[in-house]
Queue: 2 jobs
Job 1
Amino acid sequence: MKKNPDGQITVFLMADAVLAAKTNQRTPDGYYNVERMLKRVLTGKGDVLLCGTCMDAPG
């Protein structure tokens, strides 16, 4: 996005990634925090899409 401000970023989450993006999760040291990474995408005017079936699966 820095090189192409008119570009568009869309992230599509499915399977376990849907649960990993849940807010306020505590991640152990050395592990990626998906919530934090997605906030950067959303702040940069990107889109985050979730698989509906994957959201329904865990209840």
Note: The two ends are 35 Å apart (CA to CA).
Job 2
Amino acid sequence: MSQIEESLRKHFEKHRIIFWYDEKEELKDQFSELNLSGVERLEVHNNEFYIKHKVSREDTQGQYLIYRSGIRPTYVDNWLQDLELAHFEFHTNQEATYLQELGLEYGFKDLVTEHLEFFKSKERRQKLKALLGKEDTHRDIRFKMLTVLFNTNTISLTSFVQAHATAFQDGSERLDKELERYNLNSYYWGLISENFKYYNEAPGIYDFLLEVFSNVFSLTKSTGLTKDASLLLSVWKDTISYQEAFQQLSARIEEDLNIKSLLEEANVEDILEDDLFRLVDFKIIHDLIHLVVSESIGADKANQIIKRRENKYWHREFKDFYAAISHAMEMISLIRKYADVSFTSIEEGAKRYSQDLHLVDFNYRKFIWHYRSKNQNKVLEPLFEKVEKVYSNDWLLQLNNNWQSVLDAAPEWPSIPLLSQRRFFKDHVEPVVSKGQRQFVIVSDALRYECGYEYLQKVNAENRYEGELQYMLTALPSYTQLGMAALLPHKSLSVVEGSDKVSVDEVPCQGLQGRNKVLDALEGYSAVGIQAEDFMKLNSSTEGRAFVKQYDVIYIFHNQIDKTGDDKTTEDKVFEAVERELTFLMEVIKRIANMNGTSMIITSDHGFIYQHAALDETDFSEIQVEGDVWKENRRFILGRNLKVNASTRHFTAGELNLDGDFDVLIPKSINRHRVKGAGSRFVHGGASLQEVVIPLVKVTKKRQDTLKQVGVDVIQQSNKITTNILSVSFLQTELATDSIQPRAIRAAIYSNGGELLSDQFSFNFDLGEGSERQREVKHRFQLSSKASGQYKNQTVKLVLEEPVEGSSKWRFYKEYMYTLNISFSNDFDDF
């Protein structure tokens, strides 16, 4: 079947009479050979009256194909004009063939002729046909032709510009050549002129982009473009497929517009909302660091600035810088607040450290971690030096000097109910198992208290997990063998003579094998110890559940932090080890839950001191040890008949609630004992608050959901939009807590048909304190020219979306309806 025959069959499904003009008589043979069932063929040859009588009088139901060759007669001379107008005309020139294929009326012939090169490609025709609608005008069709040319997913001028800019950045001139070849260049640049007021006798995409960026950036001169220029960049930054081109072009334009020199004299407040160029964040970070180092900015103000940058385009690249500044600022602020704190007892010091003082060490650790995450970038160097100086001298040393005065006055190291590590099994494990519940104990070597504080936040941020944080005081000296032994069920602890090994009830308990000997001897309950790596290898639903069913108490041991810190070659990576450990501990409790475990305790054998910078000579104690030395360590010495040195605190075994006849020397405050070959920045074994206050995190797996997100509302004072700027107040309806999680929002104004009519605003609502007024966030939406034109007096909607976890997608959250009632005078906003 020929293409003409196939086309005619389709037309006869809708029409009774079809006229076929073949002016050059090129297709007469094909007319003669046509075989259309139920269709009578008639040829016009001075028989117009006959034809008219036959089809309109003799047979008013039959189908007819009326063929006419030669020059088309004028309206006056055409006796069949009324029939032609009443029925359908079939065309067979190239343009007509394309129109028939596309399902377009012959009235679009001139459009096809004008852009004939475009229509010669079957692939382009097929793509265009899929986009066409019944009511499309010449303008609509050309617009959709651009969609095919630029190969965009959406039919929008913004998408065309993004695709054009991307091709330019890639060094491709294909799109420019095709715009010329398909005769769409004038139409395309006419659209840009119409929408953006960009005028140039020889328009080019890069010249246009220079004007767009210059028009939008706060420190450059306005180029007279419309407000749609800022919307173009707003949408572009949010379009994932074109972000790489945006970033590369931003860097190029940054240089061509000499942005660096403009930023030199700018104030942070002047550029706080700008996010077109990377250099803006460099400038803000540089100035913030200077302000923090000089202590000429408060923590609240600094955090407000950092929060306002959180929703900006380049933040993901600079988040470690901003986080480092935030933690440094918070640490310094806390030190200035608590530096002179003093204590009257050991119990008071431990309690106070667990309440708020640990936050200094927490912020120090997070600063160092973010600092190292950026490869110790030189821009952070002044801040690093400030942090190290303040932390080491004004905090670590000062705090523990004050703490040391309490230790010097104490006759012994206390054993306090519920607080002493030695009472752990009796006070925290036995009460659970005595009720018939299975208890899991996860012991993370060197998980100090502030790490437990962060871990609790992770636990409570996980749905159906509920945790609480308590604290304990370790045994002294605060080293692994003694701390691990203290956590086991026991009556007495002692150090094996001549070593630092520990016996539990006279049973040596070195390593997992020794600890399991102690657990095997437990009366009334079945207990076992297992390495965390081996536990995680168990299949949860089969061998894992079979394993845990055998026991009332299961100890799970893991050694990542201490192993990293105790090695001189890796001690500088100890804070990275903490980050990995906190993630791993979350995996452990989830595996326990999969084995039907519901009651878990996460604790530690001891804490640690860590200073990232190399230590001064003054940080080491000159200890002339006399007596029978069993073990020398940076932070303690074990032996018998040890002589007291003024730089150490001497304890007998009995004063430490340990069995046996031996002595312990602990360097005072944070001093280290010189030990050949040992690391010096990561130490433990002494009596500093950071070493002896350890976390006790009790976690319960719940059956019901434990989490929800904060609510976000819009304070809608009016439902009418009367100007091109809409100021919107967003309200975080409740404070973020452990059980009420933050909510990230993206908002913009859309037509009812889903067309974007404004810039997009993103914000993370995560405030955990402050009044309702302080939880209010404002944004001024810039509306596009279409809002006051095409959509004037129509209803539009402010749509709030939230991210889909684990993807780049967004889902609907809320919407608010508005009526556009923008006065004509607002169209002159850009004049």
Note: Confidence is low (pLDDT under 50) at residues 824-831.
